[in-house]
Amino acid sequence: MFLQVRQLSKHFPTRRGVLVALEDINFTVAQGEFVCAVGASGSGKSTLLRQIAGLDQPTQGGVWIDGQRVTGPGADRGMVFQHYTLYPWMTVQANVEFGLKLHGIPRRCRREQVRYYLEVVGLTPFSEALPRQLSGGMKQRVAIARALAAEPRILLLDEPFGALDLHTRETMHEFMVNLWQRTQLTVFMITHDVEEAVFLANRILALSAHPGRICQEIRVELPDRSLGVMGIKRHPRFHDYRDELMRLLRHQGQTDSPVPALVV
Ligand SMILES: Nc1ncnc2c1ncn2[C@@H]1O[C@H](COP(=O)(O)OP(=O)(O)OP(=O)(O)O)[C@@H](O)[C@H]1O
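Above are the sequence and the adenosine-5'-triphosphate SMILES. Below is the predicted complex in structure-token form.
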């Protein structure tokens, strides 16, 4: 398995005691999979992603990528966040190129890589534009191009479409599925948007809150994505998955502790 999360727990010390954000999380992601973790606010999605990204260390258990234990951030993982993280004073081209420059990649290779990934995300005509001249969806495509340009082995997405309006979000969903199918990327994404998870993922991990645990794993088998966003979203099987997940999260919401789990 490419990504392995084993017996992972994360505790945070607080003034009232130790808060259990994640408890005994176990899952794997194979190469080429698109896995989404879905859960209510406070279920530990961001905490989980941070452990995988190596931005934080688990209290127990751990994360392995291709058999190597994650002990910090690494170029094998590309991240895209919800809020635009582009440098406003740099052009699209310079934003995508920046990380490559830091890694000491020679200028000619950098330029070629940037050209290729701007093409992949369909932004070649905007390479000289500044972020403020782009729509929200375009900014996120630049952020995705920037993450891809470093040629990571897995893309980690932190609610990347959460700040977009509904129409742009749907366009981005279609874009993301096409990108995934064309590049055979391995993707791990967190979201609280059930429809987004069902549309994008081939496997969904549903998280319960307080403490965050995986309460169910759902394999998604939808008809051919060439039906487009609307075609898929009207399909009965899409509704079945969405309703199952909604029911599950609603049930969890009723049974989860309303306050964070504390171990004093
Ligand atoms: N650094 C921290 N110190 C103390 N508690 C924390 C810290 N980070 C997260 N928590 C707590 O851990 C739990 C999980 O938080 P997390 O942000 O991972 O949830 P989430 O599912 O991503 O929520 P949201 O969807 O609202 O972003 C919450 O109860 C939160 O208050």
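The domain at 3-74+161-168+187-263 is CATH 3.40.50.300 (Rossmann fold).
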